[in-house]
Amino acid sequence: MAVYFVTGTDTDAGKTLVSSGLLALAHRQGLTTLGLKPVASGCEATAEGLRNLDALTLQAQSVPAPPYATVNPFAYAPAIAPHLAARRAGEVPTLDALIERSAGALAEDRDLTLIEGAGGWRVPLNDDEDLAGLARRLALPVILVVGLKLGCLSHARLTAETVRGDGLRLAGWVGNLIDPGFAEDAALYRDNLATLERCLDAPCLGVVPRLDAETPADRAEAAAKHLRLPASDRA
């Protein structure tokens, strides 16, 4: 069983798109999968309780399918930083609580498990802990999703340096094109990707272009075509 923590250079870098794409790719290769989103804000009220679109997307790409509460045990309505959303709900999530609530899922015998963070690497979990602490406590290798746009080179390098400074291994990175204008000059676009590959000093697991697919499931399948699994998890 392989477990990775997925982080991004920023909010909306494409963590869920890449995570769901990697899970879809793994399932296509005959592997069992599990996607977790331990803390999520921006949830909608439903008859079953609060539900987060990113967590639902990961749940749909988890085979066999787990209960929603397994995927997203800490769900909050406001689309704001998780620790502030939790505060408005009168809660204080902690790393101990996250690990306790995730223990059962992580004990399952899945070929590939991805734990998706929230926002970037240093997003607070509470006043004293950040969500990256979950990766540190569990000693997980990290997959970095780089939102390809102006400024991404510095964001990516700073994140990679911090991940390694926290004593963790950068297992790979994925570029996700979020600003189409960033790729208008093809030669410059290639140079930016080459700079990332050189500076991040980790395997590139793919570059996802702008996708036309509309549903989360279709987007996951489309993204999978541009991705490869970390070396130890290829079928």
What does this structure look like?
The chain has helices spanning 15-28, 53-60, 68-71, 82-88, 95-106, 132-138, 152-165, 186-200, 216-224, and strands at residues 2-8, 33-36, 39-40, 44-46, 49-51, 74-75, 112-120, 142-148, 170-177, 204-208. The mean pLDDT is 96. The two termini are 13 Å apart. A six-stranded parallel β-sheet has the order 2-7-1-8-9-10. It has a two-stranded parallel sheet with strand order 3-6. Strands 4-5 form a two-stranded antiparallel sheet. By secondary structure, the chain is of the alpha/beta class. Strand 9, helix 8 (186-200) and strand 10 (204-208) form a beta-alpha-beta unit. The protein has nine helices and ten strands.
Q: Features of this protein?
A:
alpha/beta, two-stranded parallel ribbon
Summed over residues and divided by their number, the pLDDT gives a mean of 96
- Count of strand segments: 10
Tell me what portion of residues adopts beta-strand conformation: 15-25%
Helix/strand-derived category reads alpha/beta
Give a quick account of the main beta sheet: strands, pairing sense, barrel closure.
6 strands, parallel
Q: What is the 3D form? A: globular
Question: How are the strands of the biggest sheet laid out side by side?
Answer: 2-7-1-8-9-10
The number of helical runs is 9
Q: What is the string of SSEs from the N terminus onward? A: EHEEEEHHEHHEHEHEHEH
Approximate helicity band: 25-40%
Q: Which spans of ≥5 residues are poorly predicted at pLDDT below 50?
A: none
End-to-end Cα distance, whole Å, is 13 Å
Rg, Å, rounded: 17 Å
